[in-house]
Amino acid sequence: MTAYSLAAPFRLIALEKVDSTNDEARRAAQAGSGHGTVVWAREQTAGRGRRGREWVSPAGNLHCSLLLDGGPEPSRTPQLAFVAAVAVRAALADLVPGAVFQVKWPNDVLCHGRKISGMLLEQASSLIVAGIGVDVAFAPEPGLYPTTCLRQLGSGAEPFDVLAGLCEHLGVWYARWRSEGFAPIRQAWLDGAAGLSGPVTVRLSDETVLEGTFAGLDPEGALLLVEAGGGQRKVLAGDVFFRR
Amino acid sequence: MAKTPIDGELIRSLATLLDDTHLTEIEYEAGGLRIRVARNVQQVVSAAPATIAPSPAATASVAPAPGGEDPANHPGAVKSPMVGVAYLLPEPDAPRFVNVGDTVVEGQTLLLIEAMKTFNTIRATRNGKVTAILIENGQPVEFGEPLMIIG
């Protein structure tokens, strides 16, 4: 896999198979790799989602993890979740011009309501590792959400095509985030948001279930939920379901 | 089960017991109600979800412990660098990163804080012993909120 390379500031570590690209990226960070390092594996044997959920990772789909400098303020690093989501959405829109891609809070990407990409961001030494999965050739069995893949959408793109496009857009959006702050990222995210102003169910980590209207994002990216009684809640972590 | 009223008398006697015995924490469980009182910590009454209607704020703060002080001022306080949801275990079925009484070394992972699906690792900034865990697993935390005390 030596023929592949990415434009600066990204540097590619391409692997046939790895346990988890996030774990490999963390090991790379500990060994001194810096901002812009991209770990890409054709296959993950222990791909992970949020809170230990399995991420099905066959060859044919994109599994990659990017080391990013989270900036000087640790409290703002979660904003990178939105930077990455906006970049993935843009990259997929380039590959399938006729399709409508949307972001789902905080950083899934959907096509016509079906999940096509998911992410998991973790701290790795002084950097953030942004683990990004895109279903290219195979849509996994639906778990919490319905799924799709680029192949089902009529695209013949290969995983590296998606990775290259994603890095191109991420480079641009990351630079804007560092120079202009969260506002333009937040706006781009809202412009492509699924379910805005519609009914939503949020399941929190303690299994509490909130229902209400998805009213938008607060200035830091928290999901704003207006409950039936009119009260507004800020959600920082949870699983979001759109109701019809 | 019907909603259990908070038993102020019980909490007061537990707090007195805590004071008399110089323990840092007492946990008492009976009839589906669990009460934990801890020193140098806001006293927390936490109820099993079956007992009291579930709410993200399933903990009710009551008056500070007698002789208690603000844990945020403790020199060993580990404070949250961000708003988010705190996790004391790496995955839902895994053991906790640390428990009260554990000896930790600088750099050891104490907990995770999730915000917007970004997981931040909170590490011990010094060697010592975990003398208090001030939050529950899955609890929302604020910027600067004390999370643990490393004595």
UniProtKB/TrEMBL annotation, chain A:
Source organism, top-level taxon: Bacteria
EC number: 6.3.4.15
GO (cellular component) term, any one: cytoplasm
Pfam families associated with the record: BPL_C, BPL_LplA_LipB
Domain BPL/LPL catalytic: 1-178
Coiled coil: none
UniProt keyword annotations, A-Z: ATP-binding, Biotin, Ligase, Nucleotide-binding
GO terms, molecular function: ATP binding; biotin--[biotin carboxyl-carrier protein] ligase activity
Catalytic activity: biotin + L-lysyl-[protein] + ATP = N(6)-biotinyl-L-lysyl-[protein] + AMP + diphosphate + H(+)
Enzyme class: ligase
InterPro entries xrefs: aa-tRNA-synth_II/BPL/LPL, Biotin_CoA_COase_ligase, BPL_C, BPL_LPL_catalytic, Transcriptional_repressor_C
NCBIfam families in UniProt: birA_ligase
Name of the protein in its database record: biotin--[biotin carboxyl-carrier protein] ligase
Taxonomic placement: Bacteria, Pseudomonadati, Pseudomonadota, Alphaproteobacteria, Rhodospirillales
TrEMBL record, chain B:
Lipoyl-binding domain: residues covered: 75-151
Domain of life: Bacteria
Gene3D superfamilies named among the record's database cross-references: 2.40.50.100
PROSITE patterns per UniProt: BIOTIN (PS00188), BIOTINYL_LIPOYL (PS50968)
A cellular-component GO term for this protein: acetyl-CoA carboxylase complex
InterPro entries: AcCoA_biotinCC, Biotin_BS, Biotin_Carboxyl_Carrier/Decarb, Biotin_lipoyl, Single_hybrid_motif
Pathway the protein acts in: Lipid metabolism; fatty acid biosynthesis
Cross-referenced Pfam families: Biotin_lipoyl
SUPFAM superfamilies with a match to the protein in the record: Single hybrid motif
A Gene Ontology BP annotation from the UniProt entry: fatty acid biosynthetic process
Keyword vocabulary terms for this entry: Biotin, Fatty acid biosynthesis, Fatty acid metabolism, Lipid biosynthesis, Lipid metabolism
MF GO annotations: acetyl-CoA carboxylase activity
Function text: This protein is a component of the acetyl coenzyme A carboxylase complex; first, biotin carboxylase catalyzes the carboxylation of the carrier protein and then the transcarboxylase transfers the carboxyl group to form malonyl-CoA.
The protein's name in its UniProt record: Biotin carboxyl carrier protein of acetyl-CoA carboxylase
Lineage summary: Bacteria, Pseudomonadati, Pseudomonadota, Alphaproteobacteria, Rhodospirillales
